[in-house]
Amino acid sequence: MTRIARCVWISAGLLALIGSVIAADGQRVVAVGGAVTEIAFALGKGGSVVASDTTSTYPETAAKMTKIGYMRSLAAEGVLSLRPDLVLATAEAGPANVLGQLRNAGVKVEVLPATHTFENLRDNVRLAATAFNVEADGSKLIGSLDREWRDTRRDVAALPGAPRVLFILAHAANRLLVAGTGTGADAMIRYAGGVNALADVQGYKPLSGEALVQAAPDVILITAEGITALGGPEKVWELPGVSLTPAGQHQRLVAMDAQYLLGFGPRLPRATLELARRLRAG
Amino acid sequence: MSALNPSVNGALPGLHRIPVGRLLLPTLAIALLACALFALCTGAYSLGAKQVVVLLLAKLGLVQTDAVSMQDNAVLFSLRLPRVVFGILVGAGLGACGAALQGLFRNPLADPTLIGVMSGAGLAAATVIVLGAVWIHGLSRILGPFTLPLAAFLGGLAATTLVYRVATSEGRSPVALMLLAGIAVNAIAEAGIGLFTYLADDQQLRNLSAWRLGSVAGPGWRELSVVAPVVVLSVAALMRMAKPLNALVLGEAPAGHLGVDVQSLKRRVIVLTALCTGAVTAYCGMIFFVGLMAPHMVRLVCGSDNRLVLPGGALLGALLIVVADTVARTLVAPAELPIGVLTALLGAPFFIALLLRNRREWGM
User: Measuring CA to CA, which residue among B325, B345, B363, B337 is closest to residue B39?
Assistant: First the structure.
């Protein structure tokens, strides 16, 4: 009996201790940007995130939490209404004056750079871990990402060939853009051992049928959201010029979730390997 | 008067309704004040009327309070207050400019957006946003915060002058000609803005598109210290044009006989509207419809005496913007809607209803 009682007391004490740790750590964080939110969750700090932006679609908890709107059109008062201690934002977040207004209101604003490299992901994990005061967990996460990335690079290098890939950005059916160099899609294609079919174009540019035929991609890469916007995968082949390309003749289409493919968050190694395999499949 | 020009009767449908007019300006002023106070007490952040009053009194040094949180203070004095003040400036500026342009062109469709002042200012602002860092770097270093409003002013001035030159022959500006000239200027400006959209990098593109949707959230006190004097002075100057604009209704020659220097009046109205619209547009982006709607609503209620339409248009414009902005920032909190969308959504149906009720009187 006494032993059971002691166990109960000890567990109660432990629970109280854990509770007080959580309370002391009751940091309220607003995460802005899909990759930033994913990093927060990967660091085990998802519980501190009280709101995120509309690009934060992973994990599911993040997708379902309070939304502060699109990351580029934040509203200062709206963010402040959530009483955050910390706003952890991607460099793409804005407008800049809103971030300034948040700082003036005494909120710590930590901005994580957003370039399309694995090194940037590592840096961001370290910055986020520092902001959350969990440097040890940050190092652990970086370590496991490094291992995963090394394996991914090795596996990608072992895959045969270098397919020419064209990425189509379709937010709405009437406005299609294709990815040139300097874009996240371009970086992903190259990480996956492919060749960007539009490497001589800078940034996202409107789609021209002729330029498309000239680019002669073997595979069309698109986001799952793009497929929805177009109204189905078969619509891709109806876009001007697409049916005349090698990709069109062999009906080679790869569609991936936008945040997974272009987020450059902790799922980057996995997304890279999946893309590399699917670009070469059947 | 009507013996001089028979069309005057058609243009002044409600001059007999002066009693309404006498009440109009005080009513609008009180309503504007009430809405502004309401706007100050409303928002995503929970800061209610009681706290706002305490904070305001504390700021004025009338009350000693130690329970003021830094965040409450920041929300009220660096977010809400500048926003409401800027909203009033934007609305008053656009309303007054709309009223003055309608008087100058002597037709009811003149408006800072329709005749291209706003898109002219917009094109200039887009130029500064996209090319600013590269081409006019030295210039913007000298001019500082004045670069954007100054560019917008010059763009607006160029657009208005062009429309006026094209649309006016032998001292008259027929509606169709003016609108077509406005459409042409708008098309040029749109093309220019489109070109800059193409040239812009990612960040500039976001700035451009946010700016085109319109918002009164941007400016802080520093920007307001540039915009406020420009808008206040030009609106005040436009108010003094009421009598000469009333005379202009009769036609340029009769107005001249009544002692109005018509050419100088035209020049002053064009410069003042470009100045005011430019300053406002530079910071709030494109806010459609208020410049057209506010003076019309006043006119439909109390006739087209410019002594009422000019100040009434300014007050009502300010009221519309403040209300629209309050809705914009609370409807989808903690996110925000673009205000340009709301001014059109809230204003247009009301305007259509007014038009339908009064269309016989208008004879259109």
Answer: B325
Count of C-beta atoms within a 10 Å radius of residue B187 = 12
Which ranges of chain B have pLDDT less than 50?
1-14, 17, 364
Query: What six digits make up the tokens of B44?
Result: 């995503």
- Do the Cβ atoms of A75 and B329 come within 8 Å? yes
Chain A hits for B334, Cβ within 8 Å: 51, 66-69, 75, 77-79, 81-82
- pLDDT for the residue B167: 81
- Cα distance between residue A22 and residue B98, in whole Å: 58
**CB contact set of B357 (below 8 Å; sequence gap of 6+):** none
pLDDT of residue A22: 46
Closest of A136, A166, A174 to residue A43, by C-alpha:
A136
Interface ipTM: 0.70
Residues of A in contact with B46 (CB under 8 A): 81
Chain A CB contacts of B332 under 8 Å are 69
With 0.80 as the threshold, say if the pTM is over it: no
User: How far A254 CA lies from chain B's nearest CA (Å)?
Assistant: 25
Report the C-alpha gap between A139 and A126 in whole angstroms: 7
Residue whose pair of structure tokens reads 């290098």 in the numeric block = A157
Closest residue, chain A, to B221 (C-alpha): A101
Non-local CB neighbours of A125 within 8 Å, separated by 6+ positions: A39, A42, A43, A138, A141, A142, A145, A266
Which of the residue ranges A35-49, A172-186, A222-236 would you say has the lowest mean pLDDT?
A172-186
Alpha carbons A49 and A61: distance in angstroms, whole number: 10
Interface residue of A80, A175, A181, A183 to substitute, partner B, most B CBs within 10 Å: A80
Tens of pLDDT along A58-107?
Answer: 999 999 999 999 888 889 999 999 999 999 999 989 888 889 989 988 99
Sheet order of strands, A49-52 included: A66-67, A49-52, A29-32, A86-90, A108-112
- What's the rounded Cα separation, in Å, for the pair B161 and A199? 46
Supply the DSSP string of A141-180, one letter for each residue: HHHHHHHHHHHHHHHHHHS----EEEEEEEEETTEEEEE-
Write out the H or E segment, with its range, that includes residue A262: helix A258-262
Quote the minimal CA–CA distance from B198 to chain A in Å. Answer: 8
For the four alpha carbons of A230, A236, A238 and A241, in that order, the dihedral sign comes to positive
